[in-house]
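RESIDUES AND SHAPES:
===
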Amino acid sequence: MTVVTRLITYTDLNVGGTSAQQLSVSARLEAVLADGRSVVLLDDRGWSTSGPAGIPALTSVEDIEETARTVVGPDEPFDGMTQEQMAAGHWGYLAGVLGQHGVDVPVHELERLPHDVVLSERLRAWIG
């Protein structure tokens, strides 16, 4: 049986949407397997923020890490759903993606895994 050891969200600058007054970041969530493989769980996430000139100096690695974990889910409740329902749907979806790759992991284990965030060199350089 293949075991999932942790989750990693990789972040990078969206070059076309980033300036001294705007930050645009893409985020890709992957599951790391004990055999060394990775499975992409979400590759369509990211965020943008804008502010005064000098926004790179106002942005920290910790800010990026916190926001990255938020944007890869679970989402906030909508249409009368509870936070618990949203979380169950999110983790169930991710477990389903893993299942399509032959990895059977219980939802309760998946949501308790360590979750690292990796900033690209380009993003680290932008932050300064």
